[in-house]
Design brief:
- The strands form 5 sheets. Strands 8, 9, 10, 13 and 14 form a 5-stranded antiparallel beta sheet that branches.
- This protein is globular.
- The protein contains 2 helices and 15 strands.
- By secondary structure, it is mostly beta strands.
- 13% of the residues lie in helices and 43% in strands.
- The protein has helices at residues 2-22, 79-83, and strands at 26-29, 35-38, 44-46, 49-51, 58-59, 68-69, 75-77, 90-93, 96-105, 111-119, 124-135, 141-151, 166-168, 172-174, 186-197.
Length: 198
């Protein structure tokens, strides 16, 4: 009787504690010091950002009015992400891998990025959207921009990204990046939307 009661008690306590852990993703630190996050959908991703301490509240106008601007925290790259920055220059989803192929600057100071796409999927992709986050040499986020890294020509199947193919994107121009702050070319990539055709 005592053993049965103990079993029921343990089961009840475990069932009550599970919802608290369900929202927290599992993180694992690999032997090389890189931390990865295991997601519920059986995917994983590098943990590359850490939050800096919130800034102290600043008062707007008369201090007696107590109109405070809410403190904010900035996300920066972790030291291990900076040390292993080459890993962040590629991403994959749905059988498609996207990697940085080339970066360049034009005469107007715009940053041009060219990507290489390769597919191992049975889908024929007509559009792939990529989120590009650019970080200063210090690790601070400079800019986050979503671009169409692949866009097929309407009703031209030869322009679809198909299984076994490797293609280059067009040059994607990004403004507002200071060349002097981006000498280490720190970035992270994430595939957002993917449209395919039969």
């Amino acid at each position: 009787m005592h053993k049965t009661l103990l079993t029921y008690t343990c089961t009840a306590l475990l069932s009550l504690s599970l919802p608290a852990f369900a929202d927290e993703p599992t993180r694992v630190t690999l032997a090389n010091g890189v931390t990865v996050q295991l997601n519920d959908d059986f995917t994983w991703e590098y943990v590359i950002l850490e939050s800096s301490a919130p800034t102290t509240p600043q008062y707007k106008g008369d201090a007696s009015a107590n109109t405070a601007i809410a403190p904010t925290s900035a996300a920066t790259l972790t030291p291990s992400a900076i040390a292993q920055s080459a890993l962040l220059k590629s991403t994959a989803k749905g059988g498609v891998k996207v990697s940085l192929a080339k970066s360049q600057w034009d005469d107007d100071g715009r940053l041009g990025l060219t990507f290489e796409l390769s597919s191992n999927s049975s889908e024929h992709y007509v559009m792939i959207e990529l989120e590009v986050s650019l970080f200063a040499d210090s690790g601070a986020l400079i800019k986050k921009e979503t671009v169409k890294v692949w866009q097929a020509v309407f009703r031209m199947p030869d322009s679809y990204l198909r299984k076994g193919q490797t293609r280059k994107s067009r040059v994607l121009w990004i403004e507002g990046i200071n060349k002097a702050q981006w000498t280490q070319q720190l970035m992270s990539l994430k595939i957002k939307e993917m449209d395919s055709r039969m």
